Amino acid sequence: MPVRDLTADFLRATTSAAAAAYGWVGKGDGKAADGAAVEAMRDVFDTIPFDGRVAIGEGERDDAPMLWIGEPLGSSQGLENAQMIDIAVDPLECTNHVANDLPNAMAVLAAAPRGALLHAPDCYMDKIAGPSILKGEISLEGSAQYNIEATSHVLDRPISDLTVVVMDRPRHTDLISRIEGIGAKVRLIGDGDIAAALDAADPDSNTDLLMGIGAAPEGVITATALRGLDAPFEGRLVTTTKDHQERALKMVGDRIDDIWDRDELCASSDAVYIGSGVCPGRVPGVRKNQEGNMIVTSEIIDVKTSTRSILESTL
């Protein structure tokens, strides 16, 4: 059975996590929101008939309540002929945005056959993304100037008309200066580089490129989504501590410094991306109907068929 045949089940996991986090919107406690999302998602995973594993996520087993890297998921663990699936997951992307009621908080995951998603620690990742027309034109091998000039040429637009989204972090001070020095516009975001990369991949959005360093799990999730959209994405692991470096060496070996193409981060077309909104942004946030039920809106990208759909779930 293809992984994508479990899309409805995985959708239950993200919508349940989004609904659980919604109760903490604007209350200033991102940790509580994250914990609620994790437990809700885990409870649903336990009912899904598959032999799953967290290939990349946030934290190790000691960092509960995270869905820890290597954690077994599903109700068919160890069963003969069980479907073996890897999950890249962030039960609550933009934890701080939930705490402060800011845009683009989502419960997100990517699913693919065992071994198809990069199995790496929860370190950082340098990333670049853009619309499909830029395939083969942008790369982490090039400088910011190279990539912006290439984008200007391919899109046939002046550099001054281009917008690059970058996370607002001290580590990006030099990158921001270089982008602005070239003449392009910079749109800073607090969190949420999955939504930002999806916007960059959308030729009708007001974002042309995503650049900069974010979390590695979100990079793998983004690569899955952009494979379904046939848009370019590259990532390179960035380790900032000795522990991260040692774990990365153990998990990816001599490829620790490699640039990973989209189709290496998600190496199968039998894959699915799901993002369920908590706070409004890329998709609408959770809302309540007249009966008091929660309505959760989700974006689903089926990689095999390159189809994107928006679904509403009533909980």
Keywords:
single chain, 315 residues, alpha+beta, Fructose-1,6-Bisphosphatase, Chain A, domain 1, D-Maltodextrin-Binding Protein, domain 2, 2 domains, eight-stranded mixed beta sheet, six-stranded mixed beta sheet, 9 helices, 14 strands, 26% strand, globular
Write the layout of secondary structure elements.
Elements: H1 7-22, H2 30-45, E1 51-56, E2 72-73, E3 84-93, H3 95-100, E4 106-113, E5 124-129, H4 144-155, E6 163-167, H5 173-182, E7 185-189, H6 193-201, E8 209-215, H7 216-228, E9 233-238, H8 242-252, E10 260-261, H9 262-265, E11 272-277, E12 287-288, E13 294-302, E14 307-314
Parallel strand pairs: 1-3, 6-7, 6-8
Antiparallel strand pairs: 1-2, 3-4, 4-11, 5-8, 5-9, 9-10, 11-13, 12-13, 13-14
What gap, in angstroms, lies between the N and C termini?
A: 27 Å
Stated plainly, the CATH topology of the largest domain is called Fructose-1,6-Bisphosphatase, Chain A, domain 1
Biggest sheet details: 8 strands, mixed
| Succession of helices and strands | HHEEEHEEHEHEHEHEHEHEEEE
